[in-house]
Structure formats: structure tokens, C-alpha cells
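Colleagues,

Please find the record for the two-part complex below.
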Amino acid sequence: MATIVIAGLTDRENPVYPGVMIESKKPLWFIQGSYCSAGVPIITTDGKPGLLTASHCTDPSGYGNQVFQPWYDFWAGDKNYAGYSIDWGTDDPYNEVDKRKPDAAVWIVQNRGVSNRVPLGYCWRTGTRDPVIGIVSDDQSSIMLPNLRKLGHATGYTGTAESVRLLYDERFSGRIYAVEISKLPGKGGDSGGLVFSIMCINGACGIYAVGIVVGGFPKDSPTHMAIQSAGYALRYYGVGAYVG
Amino acid sequence: MGRLVVLVFLLLSAASYAYMVEIVNFTTVLDAAVKPDFVTEIDGCRAYIYILRDFKNASTPLFKIDKLPAIKRPAVLPRSNEEFFDIVLKAIGPDVVATVAVMGPSGKENLEISISARNSTELKEKIRIALDMPVFLDREVAEKFSSSGREKAAAVVGLRIKFEDTTVYVNPIPSNVPEHLRDMLPEIYTPMEIRSTNATRVQQILSRLEEAAGGKILPGRVFLFPYTMSEEELERLRNAAIALEQELGTVRRYPDGVEGIIHIIGCGEGPCILVFPYPNGTTPDVKTAEEVVKRFVELAGVCKTPMVAEFWPSTGLRKFPARQQLLPLESLYVIIPAALLAVSALIIAAKRKRK
């Protein structure tokens, strides 16, 4: 495990870790893409490390498939190039005909390392950087969780110590949970960011990945956060969680 | 020395009593929320209809579902996982599904094993025979055994006991709690979770557990739901929503999301909360709202009591990427040379004209 030197979620990082800023979905090198966040640490069956992010943050092919961290910088040369995405998901989970498709994509990280440690020190428990040790199961239609938290580059680390009931919104494809945004504040730029719970399950205590941020509803002034289930997305892509 | 012993005893007592058994009944969301604008019966199914004017201080069921008061009673955590599993198996065993973490040189994996056992010793023995490896009730002990001897070992990391309308999940006491999380253990560790649609069954289970524990109450969380819906029923709700959205013509698509869709929230375990957009862009009257809800139920062919229908001034989804409106700095690398070329071309053309 590499040591992380945390400069900030919007800085160039090596290794990259949940919550850092990325830019992808660029139509051409000189046109701006989407600025999002990195989510759940993963490892492919052939051993490639990466992170989940939202499918609407990247493109399945073309220039928009490349991922830059924290963003594309003409002067940085290749330094900010950070890999590519495997994107079989959907950009529009409300309009998607194939109801299996999640709003999630796999960012295969290149040019730098990946850490599965969540820097809790951003606004709580100064200095601790705990690893993701598991994934919250999505086999029930609602989940009760203690200590629900989120890490995205736009609003940083937010969450609640209260117990929260995450409810599926069946209208969307994939598996999308709803939770009141006052408990898990977020905004534009947080898409793809890690949603997690600090809890004890299966005999081990620590960070369990719940999902990734995809948006908020209603559209005008969101009262609820929309979260794509991590367990569902990992199964869909056939990748494992990078836990430890 | 005597004072120290008393102090340690008091601290341990306080720690064990920090645990509670909490019961949350999700049907009570209708009492916790504001009064519905009206209630209507659709083929024997009762729908509670709310017309939300704005989101400020909104207290319809969807805004109250996380704020329901729990019935809480102090509880005592068993001293060990042996004691914990003995109580559970005696009270609601012997048939359980055990989640077993298998650790070895090639990594870790979780398995589920259906087993019949009357106590923790029998549970370990039966799993040991099934897997042909040492079995422990403590994950950390199994990890240490596995890493020191480079042999496979297993730990029982969960039990699930299923009844017709109720499921009990048993979560063993963790031993590897990181130091910085120890003070919050009662908040982050739920020893037992009971999910049910039958309050009488829950009462029976809790009584049997209390009796098996010698009068002590085990800590955990109990969730009571009014009903469950099958995957097929949920699919029918989704198809009805898509069809009704087309009939109402409320959906508007934007690059950053969508407006005017019907949300179908929490229906798998109820109460099912449907969120409708205003049908004509204006606050619906009672008659219009009732017509919309009835049409939805007609299309879906599914309605279970209580069903909640909320009409919101806006619905939909806004995706959360950030995209700046201004041209990026990089585009200047194209724009400036292009502008220079254009100006040069104009100057050359003007000079030629003068000649």
C-alpha cells in the first residue's frame, strides 16, 4: 500500500483515491469535458486497479473515453492523463430502455497508482485514512445504515451520524437509492464520488462502500440525493471491490 | 485498588448498556407526516394523497421516513460470540443460513451454508465437517490462524434465520475494532436486525430471545414494514409510471437531467411512496389529483394499503457533474492562432485591393 500525501481532492494525486476530481467526456482536447469525482476502488479480474465513477461522466469510446486527473491541462503534457473508462452504463437512468444498466463506469487508472484509503481526515477524525473493507449488499429494497458519508470533490466530505434509510427509486435503471440531501449534501461536481457507511458487519468494523453519487431530485432544487448502488455496479461490470 | 475495580466495573456497565433494542414501525410515517390533503379508496386499497405547494418545511411522508421515533429499550450485549450464537440458536434455531468467511493463502471469500445446529459448538463442528478446515466464531482469530500457519481457516461472520414474513440477521461481535472507532461502537455496530411485516411474530421472536438469554434483552434494530412487493409488482409500477408520464406529457429532457417524471420510492417494503409532477404545471385540485392516482393504479394493477401519493411542484433528476459555461483556457490555443490568421488574411486582402 502506497503512502498517500493528501494535497487536496482537486490536486493531481498519485496514488488516486476515492473523492478526487477527474475530467472526462471531452469531445475534443480543447473543449471542456465533465468534472466529476472518483468513487469505489475496484480491481478487474486481470488485476487492473481503478475506481468506479458515474457513467454520465465519461464516454464509452472516442476522446471522451480518456480520463484526466484532476483535469486536462495543455501544459501538463501527459502528466494529467490518468487512464480510460470502461463504460457500458447509461447517461440517462430515467430514459434507459435496458433497466439493468447502471449510471456507473469503471475508470481504469494508468500513469499512477490507486489507493483504497478514504481520507476521513478531511473534516473528521483528523489524520485517519481508513481502507474500504467491504461493499454494502443491495439485495434488499431498502437499507438502514448508520453513519452515512460522502466524499466528492465539489462539496468534500459530508454526511450524518444518524441512521438513514436508503430507499430505491424503481423509476430508474440500475439500482438507485434516494436519501434526503440535508443528510448527505452534494452538488455539481460530486457525481461519481464515494458514498459509504462506517459500520461493523461480518465481524469487521470500518468503511463499507454503499455507492456513488449520480445526482439529485427534483431537478429544480434537489431535496434528495440519488446514489447508484456499488454492489449492483460491481456485479454488472464483473469487477471486484479493491478492499483491504 | 478497590476504587479502580469499581471504576472499571462502572465503565464496562456503561459500555454494555449503551446498547439498545430499537423498534421502528414504518407504517407510522402516516402519523408522523402532515395530514394528507385527502384519502381515497381504490378497489379496497387506501391511498393517502398529499399536494405539496413548496419544499420549505415539507413534512410529507417522504420527508419523514427517516425521522420516525423508535421505541427504545436498554439491552445487554452478550459477552462472547459463543454466548450470542447459543442464545440465538436456542431461541429461534436450529435452521440457519451461516455466512462464513474463508481465509487462506489465496485470499478471502464469503460463503453461505444452510445448516441445522442447536448451539455454537454444534454450529462450528458442522461447518468444520462441511468445509474441512478449522472454524472460529471470531474473525480476527481465524485471520491470525490462517496467516501464521499458511492454512485455510473459516470464521462464522453472520447468521440469517428466515420465517414466512420475517428475517433475522445476526451480526457477530467484532474484535478488530480500529482504535479511533472504538468510542462509537454502539452507533456503528448493530448486533441483530429483524425485518418483518408481522408485529406479532416480532414480539414472539423477541420474547423467545429474552427467555433464552435468561431475562436479558439482546441489542438490535427491528424494522416493521406494512407489506412487501415482488419484483413483478415493482416492474408493473415502473411500466405504469412510464405510460402515465406519456399521457400527462410532463417529461422534459435537458442536458443535465430530466423534469416531470414519476418517482416510485421505497415500494419494495412499503409504504410505497409515489411522487407525481403537477399534471398541468399548476397545483392540482383534489379531483385532478385523484384522477391521476386512480389512472396510475389502473395502469399498474397494483395497490397495497397504505399507498402514498405526493404531488410535487417539480420532480425529475439533475445529474451532478460540473461543467463550466465559459470557454476553457485551452480553447484559447485554437482561438488566438485562428484569429491571428484571420486578421493576417484580411490585411493581405486589403493590401492586394489597394494595389
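The first strand of chain A starts at residue 21 and ends at 24.

Comments are welcome before we finalize the supplementary table.
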